[in-house]
Structures are given as structure tokens and as C-alpha cells.
Amino acid sequence: MPENQLKFNNNFYSDIPSDIKDSFTFNFNSYELFLKNLSFNQHSFFEEWLDLKRESICEKLFRKDIDLDWKWGLCFPFFSLLERYVSSFSKPIIIGLSGLPGSGKSTLGEWINNLASSLNLEIKVISLDDFYLPGLEMDIAMKGNPWNVPRGIPGSHSIELLKNTLDSYNRSGKIKCPTFDKSLRDGLGDRSGWIESRPKVLILEGWFVGCEPLQSRSKLNNIYKPTLTQFESEYREVVQNRLREYSDIWQMLCKTWHLKATNIENTINWKKQQENEMLMKKGSALRGHKLTNFIRMILTCIPQESLSHINSDTIVSIDQYRRVCNLVSNSYS
């Protein structure tokens, strides 16, 4: 056993099932504190997620490549928190979920939606991406950006629609929002319909959810790799101005969870894998220079200082293999 895991609470250690202890890639001490700060009874937490009926439902809904550290470090704690909100809050509540493209937000969101449906819980995950501008409006808004990307940059969303949608949800408990299919228009994407629901808990996920513009213009010059071109550096100010328009939306979030990459360059392979999966699933995706440009945009359009310090209540750090390596949460009591 690693030395840094020798000083944990023996009672806590005994609650962890023996067949999963060796699969954790995070420290037991931090995990114990993580669950404590989320106000979970550790014994009840493990007992609930090892219940044979629930375990059977979960396994059917998980992708085959989901590791135990992801399940126990992220999926189960997050869903338990959502369940608590469903039972404890009479008013609608909105939770933010932030993480770089390809980090696993959509996979987590799909699992949450499916499990909530199976357990008859009023929980719904929606994506910031679903509020992308309609195709032709998007083309106009994205024209002239240095990466020649079709979407993704702050300013590519229908911000007023998103504000009104969340405001209406807070007032009425009902949500009506668009859906966006990235495979349409040969990978450029377009709106594909609308959904309506009445969840008690709503999760908004997106790659820069909760991200605020930097206060100092001098910090816009990237101190990390890759080195910015002059055009990219100038366009960063445009992005910063657009990012300010999202601040009112972030203020509507009761809590925010951050799937934080140990290195922003992790997203390079994550995004490639994501687009390959979309290609196999839908027959269309970003390829070649279009994919390369999109990844470059992720790495350079928003300063890494902003992306790495999103104002979040819970941080789940993941490495280049998407393995959970650290867990930190503010006290929820």
C-alpha cells in the first residue's frame, strides 16, 4: 500500500469493499474528507451503492470502459448529492458541471439522465452546447475567428435564450430548450429539435461553465504553451468580452462541479477520441485540419488561468487517461 495512504481512518477503510480498494487512483485520506465535506455518512454511502438492485441498474447503464475510480470518485458521489437535492429542496435548483472537451461530461450526463429515469427521479442534464446559435446565425457569429472553427467559442451561444430558459425554470420548474446535433451540416452542426421537462434538479454542463474573464488585461498573454500568434492574442480580448455575457448565467448556478484536467493538453487526445466516436456513431464529425483547428482553439482562446481556476464547489481532477487522481470539495453542511 502506498505510504501516503497509511494514515487513513481505519473505520473508513473497512467500509470500502475489498474488491475495489486497489482500483482507486486517489488518496484514501482525500476521499474520506471528500465524502465528509459532501455531508455523506460513509457507511450508508457504500451500502447504498453496493445494493444489488441499484448495482444491477447502474452496470447496465455504464459504458464498458468506465473504471471503478470514476464510478466511486465522481458518478456515485455526484448522483447521491443530486438525490439529496430532489428530496430536500422544494424549489428548482441548477447545478453547473464544467470540464474540457472530451473530459467525460457528456458520458456522465447521459448516465445521470438514464439512471434518474430508471429510478423515477426528477433530474435532468442539459448541455451548454444545445444552446448554440442556429446554423446560419452561427456561421455569421464565428466568421473571422483565428482558428476558423464553426462553434465552441464564447459568443457562439444564444445567450438570451439560455438566460430566459433558466430564469423560466427557476420560476416555474418547467424547462424548454433546444437540442443541437454536431454531426449535421457535415460536422458544422445545427439545431435538431426541442425538449420539455419538469425536473426538480437541473444540471448545466459545458466546457467553460463557470469560467469568468480575467480582471487584468496584462494576463491575457499566454504564459503556457502553445505560444499565441498575434491574431490569437488580439482575438482573446474579443473572447474575454463575450465571456462577460455569461456571468449572469453562472450566477444562477447553486453549485458547480469541475472535472479538472491535470494538464490542459489532455484535451488533445480526449477531443480526438470524442470525434472518432461521433464519426462511428453518426457518420460525421470534425476531421483533419478542422479537428486540429478546434483543438488549437480550446488550448488558446481562453487563458488557462481562467480554465484552471473556475469558481467551483467541488473539484474532481482527472489525468490524461481520465482516471480520477484527486478529489476536493467545500463543506456542504
Tell me what you see in this structure:
This protein is of the alpha/beta class and 333 residues long. It has a domain at 123-255 and 283-301: Rossmann fold (3-Layer(aba) Sandwich), CATH 3.40.50.300. The chain has helices at 10-15, 18-21, 28-37, 42-49, 52-61, 68-88, 105-118, 135-142, 159-172, 230-244, 247-250, 266-282, 288-300, 304-308, and strands spanning 93-99, 123-127, 175-181, 190-197, 201-206, 255-261, 314-318, 324-329. The strands form 2 sheets. The protein has a 6-stranded mixed beta sheet with strand order 2-5-1-6-7-8. It has a two-stranded antiparallel sheet with strand order 3-4. The protein is globular, with a radius of gyration of 20 Å.
Specify the structural class: alpha/beta
How would a textbook summarize the main sheet? 6 strands, mixed
The assigned CATH architecture of the domain at 123-255 and 283-301 is 3-Layer(aba) Sandwich
Total E-strand runs: 8
Which stretches of 5+ consecutive residues score pLDDT under 50?
Answer: 1-8
H/I helix tally: 14
**How are the strands of the largest sheet arranged?**
2-5-1-6-7-8
State the helical fraction: 40-55%
CATH class of the domain at 123-255 and 283-301: Alpha Beta
What fold name goes in the CATH topology slot of the domain at 123-255 and 283-301?
Rossmann fold
By CATH's scheme, which homologous superfamily of the domain at 123-255 and 283-301 applies? P-loop containing nucleotide triphosphate hydrolases
Query: What is the gyration radius calculated from CA atoms?
Result: 20 Å
- Quaternary state, please? single chain
Shape: globular
H and E order: HHHHHHEHEHHEEEHHEHHHEE
Average per-residue pLDDT, rounded, comes to: 89
